[in-house]
Each structure stands twice: as C-alpha cells, then as structure tokens.
Write a structure and sequence with these properties.
Layout: E1 4-5, H1 16-28, H2 37-57, E2 64-67, H3 70-83, E3 88-92, H4 97-105, E4 109-113, H5 123-131, E5 141-143, H6 157-166, E6 170-174, H7 186-189, E7 193-197, E8 208-212, H8 238-253, H9 255-260, H10 262-274, E9 278-279, E10 290-294, H11 300-309, E11 312-313, E12 315-316, H12 329-333, E13 343-347, H13 354-376
Parallel strand pairs: 1-11, 3-4, 3-5, 5-6, 6-7
Antiparallel strand pairs: 2-8, 7-8, 9-10, 10-13, 12-13
Helix pairs in contact: 1-8, 2-8, 3-4, 5-6, 10-13
Bound molecules: pyridoxal-5'-phosphate.
Pyridoxal-5'-phosphate (PLP) is lined by residues 69-71, 96, 98, 145, 149, 174, 176-177, 197, 199, 208.
Length: 380
C-alpha cells in the first residue's frame, strides 16, 4: 500500500527545484551584507529571489520583505497598523489563528466580520460598519484572507479593498493558502499589505514574505542591523529565500495544472456526498486543491486516525500545533457549530495525482462504514 499525502494546506512536499536552490545557496555561502565577492554574490542571489517572490505576489520587488513565514508576515502588517494608530481591527471570522491571535495580542480592540453559510464574508456588513466608523479609533484596519486554509473558499478581496480604500483604511490580505494555487496580483487586488509563505507551495519551511503598498505604514518590529532595507533586522535566510523563489517560479508555471486538479477533488466530493458527508463551502468559489467535509457523529480526530491507518494523510478541519484536534472556528462561523468537531480538510498540490483522490475517497468510505458498524454493534 503506497501512502497518499493529501495535506498540502499543512505543508506541501518540497519541490525538486526548491531543494536544488536551497542546496546551491548553502554551498555558495556568503552573507549578503559582506562587501567582498562572496558577499556580493550572496546579495545578488537574495535579490534575484526577491524578484521571483515578488512575481508570485504581483508586487514590485522593492516592496517585498522576507520573514520567517506567514505568521510573521501577518504579524508585521498587524503590529505595524497598530503602531501607526489603529485602535480597532476588523478581522474576518474565518481568518487563520496567525491573524486572529496576533490581532488579539496587539492591544487593539478586535471585531469579527461575519461570513455566510458558504464561508464568504458579508460585504454589506463591512460597508455598513465602515460607514459608522469612529475616527477617534484611528484609520480602519481590515484583515481578509484571499483563500481559507480549511475550506479553500476564496474571498471577495478586490471588492473589500475598494470599500476599505474609500474609508481611508488599510486592508491586509493573508494570501498564504492562495499563493501558488490560484493566480493573483497584489496591486490589482488593492491589498495594502499581503502575506505569503514558502512551505505551502513547495518551498522550505520557515520563510515567508510581506509586500506593502504606498498607503501602508510599515514599522520595524525586529531591530538590529539594516537588513531587508531596515524593515527586518537579522542576517537573511538566504537558502530559504532561494528555495522559496524556486518554488514560487515553479508554482506560477504550474497554475493551469493546479486548476485542473479541481476535477479530481470534485469527483471525490461527489462520492463522499453520496455516502452522507456534508461538503463545506461547496457553493462558493474555492481553491482547486481543497475539500472540507463533515460527517455528523464521526469525530474529525477519528476520521484522521482511521485514514492514517489506511495510509492516507489528511488534517482535521482545525488542528493545534500540539497535534490535538480542536473544534473548527471556521465551520462554527459558517453557522455549523454542530459540525465543527467532525470536519476534515483534504488538500492536494503539485505532486498529487488523480489516484490520490480516488484512494482517499475509497479509504474514507470504508473507514466510515466500519465506524458506523461499530456504533451499531450492541455493547458486549
Ligand atoms: N495563514 C494561513 C491562511 C495559513 O494557512 C497558515 C499556515 O497554516 C499561516 C498563515 C501561517 O503560515 P506559517 O506556517 O508560514 O507561519
């Protein structure tokens, strides 16, 4: 039995191009701040990487700051907004914890922007809220992800950006899950800041980036040397940036193939629906690689364990870093708190093949039948 890995939204396998670029950067060595030849070569490598990551984001390279990942990129945006005077943050109810917990820890008031039953933010809520904005709370700061990590649901970011811009506010976009799965352009979206992360698209873990537009007032959160044009001190993670860039370039080239994967996901979805599963966000525009499903009475933790025994790796809708499963705040925000403990996330990516989705569907149906049979069996 070969293993099936359908947990790309947690971490994608490293692409061969990315592995090669990491190794090449490690072998070449050098500190980009050194003035000698090896240092200058390292600088050139770093700036080339910045250009490729900028292309992934649709942003000028001069506005791209490398970070330690998506979490830090989100934090740089949120903490900068608070440092520049924002005292109330509007955060979509389905944001990743990296955004929600950073907002909560920032000292500003946090207000949640509701979503509909499909997991899409309600634009009329935002327009009404911005109309009665109290200017004494500073400029409005709004965080809206481009695509959700659990459901894959794509948010109406450009529409939200127009509203936020008209209100003189700052729109932050967490594009960590969207990057490399759908094409986008940070400037066309109207994002004031936008975060991405390498390991979700086949790059190494521990490297991400933030791009910022002219209206965002970024502030230094990490002090020391003048790296990253002063925005983030510390010797740059050059192997990480090089790996990120190679993965980004491959991901951009592979967007059409990625889009075609939706057909495999949809075929599995249809089989699971027939078997009684509820699909979350199925009527919204979604990433082509993501499926979120819930089975009433079949806890997510058990689904994940049973599939693991069958050699299929997926995630619970929401898993803490401890590996324990907690009820999904995303599913709850969609009005389905009843399903929040029994939702799982299945996500493919660049090395996924059609058979992976077929094997997953078959394994899930078998495991579910066994689970149902055990529940029916009279207690001994
Ligand atoms: N934002 C979203 C939507 C995510 O899915 C994740 C990772 O799961 C993050 C942010 C955090 O990114 P990183 O793991 O690079 O810190």
């Amino acid at each position: 039995m070969s293993a099936v890995y359908l947990d790309y939204n947690a971490t994608a396998p490293v692409r061969p191009e990315a592995r090669a670029a990491v190794l090449a950067a490690l072998e070449a060595g050098g500190n980009p701040s050194s003035v000698h030849a090896v240092g200058r070569a390292a600088r050139a490598r770093l700036e080339a990487a910045r250009g490729q990551v900028a292309a992934l984001m649709g942003a000028p390279a001069s506005t791209v700051v490398f970070t330690s990942g998506g979490t830090e990129a989100n934090a740089l945006a949120i903490e900068s907004a608070v440092a520049s005077g924002a005292r109330r943050l509007i955060v979509s109810a389905v944001e990743h914890d990296a955004v929600i917990e950073t907002a909560r820890a920032s000292g500003a008031a946090v207000e949640f922007w509701p979503v509909d039953a499909q997991g899409r933010v309600q634009l009329n809520w935002l327009s009404a809220r911005l109309e009665r904005w109290d200017a004494s709370e500073g400029a409005a700061f709004v965080a809206l992800m481009l695509a959700n990590n659990e459901t894959g649901v794509i948010q109406p970011v450009a529409e939200a950006a127009e509203m936020v811009r008209a209100a003189g506010g700052w729109l932050h976009v967490d594009a960590v899950q969207a990057a490399g799965k759908i094409g986008f352009d940070s400037r066309a979206l109207g994002a004031d800041t936008l975060a991405v992360s390498a390991h979700k698209l086949g790059g190494p873990q521990g490297v991400g980036a933030l791009t910022f537009g002219p209206r965002a007032r970024l502030s230094r959160r990490i002090h020391g040397g003048g790296q990253e044009r002063g925005w983030r001190a510390g010797t740059e993670n050059l192997p990480g940036a090089a790996g990120f860039a190679a993965a980004a370039a491959a991901a951009v080239q592979g967007l059409e193939l990625m889009a075609a994967q939706a057909a495999w996901r949809d075929a599995a979805q249809a089989r699971l629906r027939d078997a009684g599963a509820e699909i979350l966000g199925a009527d919204a525009a979604r990433l082509p690689n993501t499926l979120c499903l819930a089975m009433p009475g079949y806890p997510a933790e058990l689904q994940v364990m049973n599939l693991d025994l069958a050699g299929v790796m997926i995630s619970a809708g929401s898993a803490c870093s401890s590996g324990k499963v907690k009820a999904s705040h995303v599913v709850s925000a969609m009005g389905r708190a009843d399903l929040a403990g029994c939702a799982i996330r299945v996500s493919g990516g660049w090395a996924t093949i059609a058979e992976d989705w077929t094997e997953f569907a078959e394994a899930w149906i078998k495991a579910r039948e066994r689970h149902a049979a055990r529940r029916r069996a009279p207690a001994a």
